[in-house]
Amino acid sequence: MAGLFAFSLAGLGFLFLGAIESLSISTAPALLPPPLLLRLRFISALLLSSLSLLSSLVSSLSSAESAADPLGPSLPLSSLTAAAPFLLYSLAGLLSLPSSSLLVNPFPSSLLDLVLLFSFGQEFLLFHFRRKDLDGVENRYFDLLLVPILVCAISTLLAIARPRSPAPCVARAAGLAFHGTWLIQMGFSFFTNLIAHGCSVHERSATNYTIKCKTHEDYHRGRAIATLQFNCHLAFLMLVGAVAYGVLAGRTGGNAGYRPLSKELQMTDASPSNFTLDSDEEEEIEAAETKGTKQHQDVVLPVVEIESANGSH
C-alpha cells in the first residue's frame, strides 16, 4: 500500500498543477488574481518536489537495512536528479514574486521556464533509462509515461519562444493533467487487484519491484491492457478538454473576437442582404463613365466659346 499511496499522491499533485495552469489561461483570474495563481503554482511544486526528495531519502535508508537487496538503496536516489530541479524552480519562482522582499532583481519568466524545461528533461531521462528488469510489465507503463512528460517539455520550450501565446500553457496544462492521471493508474495497476490477470508484483524491497506474469501470453495481455488504459486516459482527457472549452466559450461569447471586413461595411446603411459581389464593379463602371463625360465636356466647351467669339466678329 505504500507504493499505491506514493503514486496516488504524486498523481494528485500533478493534477493540481495542471488545474492551476489551466486557471491561469481561462476567465478564472477575474476571481483568482494572477499573483495568487503564481504563488499557488510555486508552493504546490515546492511541496511536491520536497515530498519526493523526502520519500527518496527515507526509502533509501530503509532499504539499506536489508542486505538481501543490493539495489534497494540506490534506486530511490536516482529520482533525486529529477526532483532537485523542480525544487530549484519552485524556490526561484517564490523568490521572484512581486511580494517577495528577499530578491531585488527577480528572475525573468523565460529563465524560470528554462529551469522547468531542464526539470522535465531530467524526468524524461530518468524514466527512459529505468529498466531494471527487461521483461517486467511495468516497463510498458513507464514507457507510456514518457508521452505526457514530452508534451510538458515541448510546451515549455514553446512558452520560452512565444511567451505571450496561450497555446503552450494549454498544452502544458493538458500534459500535467495526463501525467497525474497516469501516475494514479500506475499505482492501482501495480499494487491492487486491478493488475492484469496472470501477473503479480514481486517486491525485493519497497522500491525494487517488478511485475512478472506466468506465461508469455500473459505478458502480451498485460502490455496490451496498459496500452488500452493509456488510450482511455487520453480519450477522457480530450473529452474533459472539449467540455471545458465549450463552457468557457459559452461564458465569453462566440462572437467576442469578431471583426468587420472593412470600415465601409460597418458604416453603410444598406442591409447586408442587398450586398452583392457585383456592386463594386457597377460603382467602378459608373465612375469611369462619369469621368469620361466630364473630360468630353472639358474638350467641347472651349470649342463652343471660340465659335461664339467668331460669330460676334
UniProtKB/TrEMBL annotation:
The lineage of its organism: Eukaryota, Viridiplantae, Streptophyta, Embryophyta, Tracheophyta. The chain crosses the membrane at residues 38-59, 71-91, 111-129, 141-161, 173-196, 230-248. Belongs to the TMEM45 family. Pfam families: DUF716. This is (wild Malaysian banana) hypothetical protein. Residues 270-296 are annotated as: Disordered. The keyword Transcription does not apply. The keyword Transmembrane applies. It is a multi-pass membrane protein. Residues 278-287 have a biased composition (Acidic residues). One of its GO terms (cellular component) is membrane. PANTHER family: OS06G0238900 PROTEIN, PROTEINASE INHIBITOR I4, SERPIN (DUF716)-RELATED. Keywords: Membrane, Transmembrane, Transmembrane helix. Its main location: membrane. It is found in: Membrane.
